[in-house]
Write a structure and sequence with these properties.
It is built from four helices and no strands. By secondary structure, it is mainly α.
Length: 117
């Protein structure tokens, strides 16, 4: 699938949006709030989500033959991050929950677009 495909471009956009939203929430909100916002498991999940989204976007941008595998992994990480953010609650976390779920759905669809060569 060429990288100029509209679905792929939308997935790349969502990955970057998710990465940016999670990074902003983590560094500008969670780490300053303390408590469960800055708990090890939550912070690790948010960092994983930031990295997974960036990596999935990079794989798709360069049309890696392995982008489907990376998108599948990204969807799983985004789902886990969404659950953690939802559990903690609050405006910042709800925004993260929503974009993580949209990104997960898009990545899951992209993971099924072609077989790994």
């Amino acid at each position: 699938m060429p990288h100029d495909d509209a679905r792929m471009n939308e997935c790349i956009r969502l990955c970057w949006e998710c990465r940016n939203e999670c990074q902003t929430a983590l560094y500008q909100h969670c780490l300053t709030m303390g408590g469960e916002h800055s708990g090890k498991d939550h912070v690790t999940l948010m960092a994983d989500c930031i990295q997974a989204c960036q990596t999935a976007a990079d794989f798709m941008t360069r049309c890696s033959k392995l982008y489907t595998a990376e998108c599948a992994a990204c969807a799983d990480v985004c789902d886990a991050c969404a659950l953690s953010c939802e559990r903690i609650g609050g405006d910042f976390m709800i925004r993260c929950t929503e974009i993580c779920r949209r990104c997960a759905q898009s990545c899951r669809e992209m993971s099924k677009t072609m077989e790994i060569a």
